[in-house]
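S1.2 Input.
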Amino acid sequence: MWFLLLGLLAVALKYFEVGFVGQWSWWVVLIPFALAMAWWAWADSSGYTKRKVVERENERRQDRIDRQRSQLGMLTSRSNRRRRGR
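S1.3 Output.
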């Protein structure tokens, strides 16, 4: 995501010829977009993206369970669960 934002900023600066970026070649300005594509390709092929989605879903699920237990008055701290072997 950072590469994409950097690329958009560089394109805007190049288009409006602001500062030293206005003098750069278009190839140099477009490099962050190539890096963003490479990052997304690697993240998808390595499973990084899917792993992060699963982690977020598990965290949301656990938060929902803890919230429901708290509302029912059944909440035990996570440290107590570890001590009891859960």
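S1.4 Remarks. The radius of gyration is 23 Å.
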